[in-house]
Every structure is written in structure tokens, then in C-alpha cells.
Amino acid sequence: MKRVLAKHSCTVICAVVFAFGLVAQDKSAQVRQAKESVWILREDGIGPAKIGMTLALLKPMLSDKVSTPEDRDEEDCFYVTPKRHPKVAFMVEDGRLSRIDVDGSGISTETGIAVGDLEVRVLRAYRHDLKVEPDAYTAPDGHYLTLHKPKSPYAIRFDTYKGRVEHIYAGRFESVQYIEGCE
Description:
The chain is α+β, with helices and mostly antiparallel strands. Helices cover 31% and strands 30% of the residues. The chain has helices spanning 2-37, 55-62, 119-126, 173-176; strands at 40-42, 45-46, 49-50, 77-80, 88-93, 96-102, 108-109, 130-134, 142-147, 154-161, 164-172. The protein has a 7-stranded antiparallel sheet with strand order 4-5-6-11-10-9-8. A 4-stranded mixed sheet has the order 3-2-1-7, with no helix packed on it. A hairpin with a 2-residue loop joins strand 10 and strand 11 (164-172). The termini are far apart.
């Protein structure tokens, strides 16, 4: 009788351990999925999208049908805007993601800066790492606040007007500096 109970106890314990293992695996997959669904803007990407990835890799992440320009001249640089995140646009240059534009609230940087925040908040968050320049169109009321670490291929630029963030661009340093987007 003791052997039967011991064997039964071992079976129950093994089943419980196995079930907890499945729950733990499922939980870690949920955490990973949650991180990818919350889009945080970084110098090198947003959510699961990374600067430099091909359009073919980007398309499935957007969960949208993505069309490319029909005119060959426009294929060098164009934008893709996902329906799920209409305030975010992906700049694609030569078939690769080069820049991410954020034009509305709801998406923030790793430090919590979002469109609509005060320019002073950006200056405090990034302190001496920012290069402050007059906006080409709206100076003296507008500024470009660019965060570019030495030797990094990436940057973030905050476009401000009258003390508020109006746009945020992240991606390749060269692409972030384009004033007219793909123009």
C-alpha cells in the first residue's frame, strides 16, 4: 500500500511540476508578446521593428497589407504607415527601414517623452547630450533637439514649436536629419 501511495504521489508531483513549467513558459511568452505590442521609440527602432531591417521583415510585424510605390523613382525612399498605429510612419530607403516618424501622442521614447510634451522636459531628460538647433522653417519659435551619441549610427530628433514637441524622429543619423522626409 505504501508503494502504491509513493508511486501515486510521485505521479501527482511530476504532473504538478510539469503544469507549472507550462504555465511559466506561457507566462514568459505573454511577457515577450506584451513588450512587442507596447511600442516604445528607441534610437534603433520601435517595438519589434529595428532600423536596418528589410521591408520583407517589417511587413509581418505591421499586421497590415503594405504596398510599395509603383513608380521606380519613388522606391528609393517612401513611407509605410500601419493602420494599428496611424501616428507612426516608417521611412524605407533602398528597401530597408531607415527612420521612424511619430506625429501624435500615444507613443513615447524610453525616457517617456512623447509628442505634446514640453521642450523643457526633453532638455531635462537628455541634458548635455542634445544638440539644439533652430528649426529651418519655424525659428526662432521652433527647434531641433537631436540626441546622437558619438560613433552611433542612430539618433533621435525632437522637433519642437513654441516650447512643445510636435514630431519625433528616430533611426539612422543621416535619415533623422532630413527636413522634408523623403524629399
